[in-house]
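Go through this:
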Amino acid sequence: MDVLGENLVAALGAISNIVVDFTPQKSTFMQCGGIKELVQLTKSMDSSLRLNAVWALRNMVFLADKMCKEGIFMELTVSFVASLICDPEPSVQEQALALVRNFVDGCMNCVEYAFAEDGIILDAVRRQLQKSSKIEIGIQGMYLLSNIACGNESHKEAVMQLLLSQAENVSRSLFSQFLHSNDSHLRTSAVWVIVNLTFPASPGAFGRIAKLRNVGIVSQIKRMANDPCMDVKLRARQALGQIITFGDS
């Protein structure tokens, strides 16, 4: 990387720090055409520039209001977000998943970003989770799905379908492996998905719990109630508390 590239990476790092928490700075940055420039940098042949540009966009979207998210999403386009998730560099994939995680966090309408244009973003998420061995990608993917599972019934069912797509061989399924992971952060993120899928007030919670029980996921969650990691233990017990609302057969 030349001096110009190094300066751009440093500038992107500074932008990421500035926009992560402060809404006024986000608005000013957008009004000055900053989003267009960031999106252009995500298309760079230099992986460091792509990584830091996606990271900056991730922080721009974090806790952003609806108007800010819509502006950034339209500039990126659905197909390009999907391509970033499938970037050759795992570090870019991770940040792209975190970007989508922030897009779908918040109100019900935000979840729809993952389903735009026949769900090509969600399909890209599924493919990367299945093919990548990088733990950080699994963590971001699980938190992304956890946010989607906070949505309506169709959103929750889409997550169920993605998680149980390999249910004929539960012990080797991707989600089962995440629940069994040696990494406590990955286990925590996976259990969060179950918490949001089994929220008792959801009309379809009983049916989802029955499916999760049939494929052995509920049994795994029961064992995790005594996990050595406090975060995992608390989330597993929260999930079990919701599950037993419908009986413990």
About this structure: The chain has 16 helices and no strands.
